[in-house]
Amino acid sequence: MDIGGTILGKKAPPVPCCIRDSSSSGARLTLSEGNSYRWGMKATGIPDRFKLFMPAENSEVDCEVVWRSGKNFGVRFVSPARLLGKAALPDTVPIAAQVIPGASRTFGKKS
Question: How far is CA 39 from CA 2, 13, 20, 107, in A?
Fold first, then answer.
């Protein structure tokens, strides 16, 4: 099963991805077609080290890329996953505003 994630680099905008074949030591990640075309990115454009945010678990983990092929790449987890508190979650919601044209900072909030 594919799970959504977000790559958080130090000097780059957040990049949504699919988390595939994950284990306790790493995972295979895939850039979606839309992301590959929108940013002109392939796995070669992803930094060697980054944080992977996993919204389903509200956690993040430090990753290191170990292989790249097209829009697929494998990562090794170099830290334990860190659960984020509720205060951290609202700061991650605006990522949708960068990915979905027309989305606003109030994305997901009820009026």
Answer: 22, 10, 21, 22
**pLDDT tens sequence across 70-110:** 889 999 999 999 998 764 444 444 444 444 444 444 434 44
Structure pTM?
0.68
Write the CB contacts of 6 (distance below 8 Å, at least 6 apart in sequence): 14, 15, 16, 17, 52, 53, 55, 92, 95
- Run of H or E including 67: strand 59-69
What kind and span of H or E run contains 96? helix 95-99
Type of residue found at 38: R
Q: Domain residue spans in the chain?
A: 3-99
Q: In the CATH hierarchy, which fold is given to the domain comprising 3-99?
A: Pnp Oxidase; Chain A (2.30.110)
Q: Give the Cα separation of 5 and 80 in Å (integer).
A: 16
Cα separation of 90 and 59, whole Å? 13
